[in-house]
Amino acid sequence: MSGTDRAADWWATGITDIAPGSIRLRGYAIQDLIGSVSFSELVWLMVRGELPTSAEAELLELTLVAAVDHGPQAPSIAAARMAASCGLDLNNAMATGVNLLGDVHGGAGQQCLEVLHQLRATTDDGVAPEQAARDLVADHKARKAFVPGFGHRFHPRDPRRDPLIGAVRQAAEAGTVSGEYLRLALALEEVLAEGTKPVPMNVDGATATIHAELGFAPELARGLFVLSRSVGLLAHSWEQRNEPTRIKGPLPKSVIPTYTGPPPRDLP
Q1: Residue 64 contacts by C-beta under 8 Å, 6 or more apart in sequence?
Q2: What is the pLDDT of residues 82-107, one digit of tens each?
Q3: Which helix (H) or strand (E) holds 208?
């Protein structure tokens, strides 16, 4: 192998084929894709390697729309707005928000998808979905851990849950998806509704159900959430850039954070 060949293989990829005057994504010429496929179809093609059916693309698009934004009370949005108020360019402000999306804020979709895979493995061993869900909830309670994808700190019932679950239910009835993960997610929700305070599914649980039905890996679920939330980050960063307030911190200037250290004292 020549030195040139070794250099060409350094970033070998099966995604994009570039040559002078030619751009191909997964083998398809970009000029053929433009105007022929939707953005959600292109996302699927890029991460999965093949084009989805129109029904699969519609389901994926629902998840991308649902997770776009949750206002400045979401830490990622607030951070992006603070960054924009400090004069950072849009890409820097957006990156500030994206970098806040981790396991605690932004990771529940991936975590819920992992839970659904765990339940699927249990039911494949012969355990009924309801019992598998009951055992999983009992385990989380024993560890004092939240079941990811259920409950919301702001919404008594997440308004995004019903349209997403309704769509995946219709897709299961039409044969677009198997409905296996939908049954598991609903079994979990039923068990969590048995307590004194029901814990309904939230947007992360609903999107995880769709991602599971569509065959996306858990890590891709988080990446898709970041992709969706980036739209909100862009909108809020742009809005903040066009407001006169500079160096906008997490609290109004008139509000001083509560001090909890030692009282005033003199140096010895």
Answers
A1: 40, 43, 224, 227, 228
A2: 999 999 999 999 999 999 999 999 99
A3: helix 203-214
How do residues 139-155 score in pLDDT, each as one tens digit? 999 999 999 999 887 88
What's the mean pLDDT in 188-198?
Answer: 89
pLDDT higher than threshold 80 for residue 156: yes
As given in the structure block, the two tokens for residue 250 are 């997490």
3-state SS class at 29 = strand
Q: CA nearest 211: which of 193, 185, 191?
A: 185
Identity of the amino acid at 69 = D
Angle of helix 108-124 versus helix 203-214 axis, rounded to 10: 50
Give the global pTM: 0.93
The CATH number that domain 53-250 falls under is 1.10.230.10
Give yes or no for a contact between 189 and 200, defined as CB atoms under 8 angstroms apart.
yes
Largest CA distance in the chain: 79
- Per-domain boundaries in the chain: 14-52, 53-250
